[in-house]
Design brief:
about 90 residues; High-Potential Iron-Sulfur Protein, Chain A; two-stranded antiparallel ribbon; binds iron/sulfur cluster
Amino acid sequence: MPTRRFLIRRGALAITSVAALSLASSRSAEADTMISKQVAAYQDQPNDGKRCSACCMFVPGDPSHCTMISGVISAHGWCKFWEAGPNDTCS
Ligand code: SF4
């Protein structure tokens, strides 16, 4: 059975894919498979105590990244796809 996260990602990717069809072919493969900060409602501050550093999609580093959201993120940030768990352990 598909997980909630899988279904959310598939839905967001479907929307992104429709938009991507109208863009030039020079976009990178990574950009086509990641969700934008805007779509994810990403912010650089925690939300109700929830922060990227406690999310299973967080990839710590300098700079830090996310397995779902494109670009550099803050350990203190948050987005609507937040899911509790050790770093980089979501399947
Ligand atoms: S999915 Fe998790 S780690 Fe990625 S931006 Fe959202 S809250 Fe941060």
